[in-house]
Amino acid sequence: MLVVVAATVFACGTPKTVQESKKVIKGYWALDNISYDASGTYNITLFNDTSAECMQGSSWRFIPNNNTGNYTINNGNCPTGERNFIFTIQEIDPSTGLYDFLLKPTNEKGKSETNAGFRLRLAQLSDSSMRWEQTVSVDGKPFKINMNFTKIQE
Question: Which of 10, 92, 112, 142 lies 20 to 30 angstroms, CA to CA, from 3?
Answer without folding.
Answer: 92
